[in-house]
Specification:
Strand content: under 5%
Number of helices: 16
CATH topology of the largest domain: Growth Hormone, Chain: A
CATH class of the largest domain: Mainly Alpha
Number of strands: 2
Structural class: mainly alpha
Shape: globular
Strand order of the largest sheet: 1-2
């Protein structure tokens, strides 16, 4: 039996991490760049009727492929899979920029979404393999900064590039950035890799894809494209349930399951996964509906509404940095998601009380409570989940948590979109701010209730000591 590596496998952890986080930034930026570039894309390619699919296709393939990328990283090497996902994302970006029609554009967004699914989970899995849980808090704040930069910088960068150069360049700019990530990671990153016989669970991947696709399509189309009580709606629900049941049945029998179900026997992993789902819903909904409220009700411009998210984003960064450093220093972490969930309840509850007369400064205070809550809990869920499983399942664990966070956000936004559309549809003039305020109140009251569930989930987390090494459970380790 060869010696097991018990220390970070590179002398330049910070430099290696920089390249990995920059790769994550690519996906985050593109997730929000498209919002400001989309009107120009639709006008040029004449595709208003299928506009939503530009976003949905990307989000759907990202959610579907996230756990698959995570498992492939466990099998074939996390560095290799991260580099491959960067390359696929770059190819997809080129295809998007060169698309001559909406149909080809949507297909290109599928390719781009496949790559994006590997970027986020690959970054978290690499961090998990590179840094022991006890020391991981030092770096989780950097991930929070990346998320905040992508969330705020995406719309601003997309708008600036689209105005100056055209929407094509909003995607072509990904190519040199992706090349930089590939070179940087290739030179700086060294990871231990356990030699394992690679078996890809294609059936599991297909069943998981069917379950996720049917779920996202039902929440996206339900009440809009199709009626909730229609045959199509019931059909999608039946497909989602049947595919999910078949997936669970097969995962118990597959030799290399996409989702090793034994991980859910660990209480902390299950609770962290559920908490990640809640935080994903809260984060995505807040980022989407706060600017919409500020533009529709408070009269802010699109650019100003992006900047007005800073009172939420800055606390996310500061709280995540504080929690990460404190966790690394003391080894304790249970209090952070509890306090974070409570703060989210307060923030969302206060935001639900907003009216047309609520001033910007008061909205900012409410947003700060929500940002504090997300900062204390969102990144912590990944560390808690990773600490609860063996190193050989780090990729799968990171993939599941990331997928649930993304899927929760996508489903939540779709459901809230139906609520918002129902409240504001056909309303114009002076009545629109009143209708929008009512819809926003319902959305944030729902987020407050979900955050209260998050308090219960966080309370159930046990203070399992954080590992101080990344010792692999198997014998053979090779440098990759």
């Amino acid at each position: 039996m060869e010696a097991i590596q018990t220390h970070p496998p590179t002398r330049h952890v910070g430099l290696a991490m920089l390249g990995v986080l920059f790769g994550m930034l690519l996906a985050m930026l593109d997730n929000f760049i498209v919002g400001t570039a989309l009107p120009s894309m639709v006008r040029e390619l004449h595709g208003m009727e299928v506009m939503a699919w530009v976003v949905t296709a990307y989000a759907l393939t990202t959610a579907i492929t996230t756990p698959i990328w995570g498992k492939l990283g466990d099998l074939f090497g996390r560095k290799l899979m991260f580099q491959l996902s960067v390359a696929v994302f770059a190819v997809g970006s080129v295809l998007v920029a060169l698309s001559p029609s909406m149909g080809l554009l949507i297909g290109a967004r599928v390719v781009q979404g496949i790559g994006a699914g590997g970027l986020a989970v690959g970054a978290f899995a690499v961090i998990g393999a590179l840094v022991p849980p006890r020391d991981r808090g030092k770096y989780q704040g950097l991930a929070a900064i990346v998320i905040a930069l992508g969330t705020i910088g995406g719309p601003l960068l997309g708008g600036a590039i689209t105005d100056a150069l055209g929407w094509h360049w909003a995607f072509l700019i990904n190519v040199p950035l992706a090349a930089l990530v590939l070179i940087w990671v290739g030179v700086m990153l060294r990871l231990p890799h356990e030699r394992r016989r690679a078996r890809i669970d294609w059936l599991g991947a297909a069943l998981l894809s069917a379950a996720i696709s049917a779920t996202v399509l039902e929440t996206t189309w339900g009440g809009n494209t199709i009626a909730w009580l229609s045959v199509q709606s019931f059909g999608l629900i039946a497909v989602a349930i049947a595919a999910a049941a078949a997936f669970i049945w097969w995962q118990r029998r597959a030799s290399e399951p996409i989702v090793p179900l034994e991980m859910f026997h660990e209480r902390n992993f299950t609770l962290a996964s559920a908490l990640a789902t809640v935080s994903g819903i809260v984060m995505f909904a807040a980022v989407l509906y706060l600017p919409l409220y500020q533009q529709t009700v408070q009269g802010a411009s699109p650019t100003a509404s992006g900047l007005l998210l800073l009172p939420m984003m800055v606390p996310i960064i500061l709280a995540s940095l504080f929690a990460g450093r404190r966790m690394s220093r003391t080894g304790r972490y249970r209090a952070f998601p509890i306090v974070g969930a409570i703060s989210s309840v307060i923030g969302a509850g206060l935001l639900a009380t907003m009216t047309a007369a609520t001033p910007f400064w008061l909205t900012s205070i409410y947003m700060a409570f929500l940002g504090l809550g997300l900062g204390l809990s969102q990144q912590m869920t990944t560390t808690i989940a990773q600490n609860a499983v063996d190193l050989r399942h780090i990729g799968a664990a990171s993939g599941i948590v990331t997928m649930l966070r993304t899927l929760g956000g996508a489903v939540g936004v779709a459901v809230f979109g139906g609520i918002y559309a129902a409240a504001t549809g056909g309303v114009a003039g002076a009545a629109l701010p009143v209708a929008a305020t009512g819809a926003t109140s319902v959305i944030f009251l729902t987020l407050a209730l979900l955050s209260a569930i998050g308090v219960v989930l966080a309370w159930g987390i046990r203070e399992i000591p954080l590992r101080t090494t990344n010792a692999a459970p198997a014998a053979a380790v090779a440098q990759r």
